[in-house]
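During the second year of the project, the team shifted from modelling isolated chains to modelling whole assemblies. The rationale, set out in the original proposal, was that interfaces cannot be judged from single-chain predictions alone. As a representative example for this report, we include one of the complexes processed in the last quarter. Its constituent sequences, exactly as entered into the pipeline, are reproduced here:
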Amino acid sequence: MFSKATAFTLALVLSHAAWAEKTTLTVATFPDLDRAAKAAAESFQKQYPQVELKIVSLQYADHHTAMTTALATGSGLPDVMAVDFRFIGKFAESGGLEDLNAAPFNAQALRNQFVKYTFAQATGSKGNLAAMPADIGPGTLLYRKDIADKAGVTEAELTKSWESYIEAGKKIKAKTGAYLLADAADIRDIVLRTGLKDGEGLYFDAQGKVLVDNPRFVRAFELGRAARQAGLDAKVSPWTNDWAAGFKQGRIASQMMGAWLTGHLKNWLAPDTKGLWRSAVLPSGQAGSYGGSFYAIPKKAAHKPEAWDFIRFMTTNKATQLNSLKVLDTFPALIEAQNDPVMDEPLAFLGGQPARQLWREIAAQVPATPVTKYDAMATDVIRDEFEKVVAEGKAIPAALADARSLIERRARR
Amino acid sequence: MDSAMPLVKPAGLAAAPSKKAGAAWRMRRWAPYLFIAPFFVLFIVFGVFPLLFSIWLSLHQWDPAAGLGAMRWVGLENYVFAATDPWFHKSLYNTLWFALVSGVPQHFVALPLAYFIHRHLKRSRNAVVAAYFVPYITSSVAIALIFSTLFSKDYGVINAVLGPWMSEPIDWLGDAAYTKPAVAFVVFWRFLGWNLVLYLSALQVIDHELYEAATLDGAGSWQQFRFITLPLLKPMIFFAVTLTIIGNLQLFEEPFILVDPEKGVSQSVMTSAIFMYRLAFSDGDFGTASAVSWLLFLIIAALTWGNSKLFGRTGGQHASS
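Output from the structure prediction step:
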């Protein structure tokens, strides 16, 4: 915080100094996303020599807590704020971020340059566009080709339907002993997004009515329970030691997640499994997205024009977007970047599969699902009730009814 | 007061003699306040203000990301909401469960252990006490990370040791039937040494002549423990139990780090402090979170009062005798 305060004082002093002095633009971000900004810094500096970039990077949770505090108190705000997908709903509702649809930004004009669902995610309930999308996570099924081959399971079996996915998992378990997936909750999370249309919310409809006992959720819970009962999941949650070890030792045969997981597997989760993985559509051909990153301008930012220059440089500049893809393995939100020949490159980690073409197709099909500030809370409630269903044998209708009343209670205002 | 003089003199040297006396007098008058000011400034900023603000906050609905202007007065609604919330009830149950299961054994083990160390260990005593005390001063995050490795279902040492007697590995931190005991054990292990040191220090001030007299009267080891040590330790037992109650009711780090809060099973170890944290930082409902913290304060105050009723009276008598 201190260094940020110093930066602000510095920025203030500089802006009051002679016109030839540089403007210091503070960008608050977090790892690994900060690598994208750092990689772009040099070429940005060349194009905007009068702007001095200052990239402040805190750990993921610290960054979002610091930004929440800064928005609450209105002090210590950066000029550009990186926001992860999980916080975009809350921040978009906050009223502390510039509406980029309004003048002088007029970001609506840029809308068609981006994958359509990203703008829906960054739009608050008042129609305000809180942030610009930088990268996205098209949902994919990453699976171990060698394990599937050993069990005599084809990709079609894994992806045809949810039932065939679970059946394939039983074969894999019987033949190789490997788990089909890390956590049965992964199935729940993606099935409950089945059949969403543009503009339809995950937990709430447009009027704020709670949707969690509709058929989407019933089916999501049933399929998740079926996988757990068949012993197909390793019962480990993402980003834990056991999860990483499961990949390293080949005990987990598939994982549904954003395409960016390929980069994590390659870089640190299981580099030795290079060439053994393949990417496929999610079971039943469903299109979904996992995560994504955004850049926003706080209303109290000191250098808004420069901040907007930087955000456009990060999000609408094809070269920057492709560079982020190179350093981070993130998937560009900018459609122009998605049409670059680099998308057709074979990926060595996926055994030479040109998987980015597939991810581009998936991204285009993801419905534009609005995000609300209560989504994080609703996710918590659903998680808890699902655990009761799979671990304690609670009946699904009772669990969903309880989830509904808990969510209604918490979304009371 | 005298100590302020040398500081004042050099500063006033340049001034005229008459002014110098006045300035020195003023300095002398205000210097003490200046010297104690740092504490009060820090205390007001980091102690009093957050305390008062959280009372104010608990009467409002407030999403902090929306800025201070978004605070809306709701009166006691947050308190009513929290007190009737099923998750809050569950968190209270979990908290009390931890307080009992990890707290009570701490004392039942620490007291006899302290007695044993006090009576029977001579040269190795300091080393043994230090060994027991190490967990207390170790970072709770480091402890939780080490134990989450030990408790790991497929790769943990604990399951590896138990392996031969188990039909299948226990998912210590992923199965709601085991998460609570696993976390309680870590808390027990961590605070045992602290209580041991408390009891040991109390044992050391008991007059050795009492034991000699008892031995002359033919009292055995158990009788000495029962009729000399235990009664004289009562004030310390009261103090140690009070600290355990307060500490356990605020339990946060161990369950929070050991059981992934992203997992549904984390509900089984959700203490009131974790519930408060989730309300604030996951749901963005700082008003209700503040209300929960004050409800928790009332519960801790009530239990501490009850504890003093239980131990305080008799403890006080011995202390004054």
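The CA atoms of residues 203 and 233 of chain B lie 7 Å apart. Residues 1-15, 315-321 of chain B have pLDDT under 50 and may be disordered.
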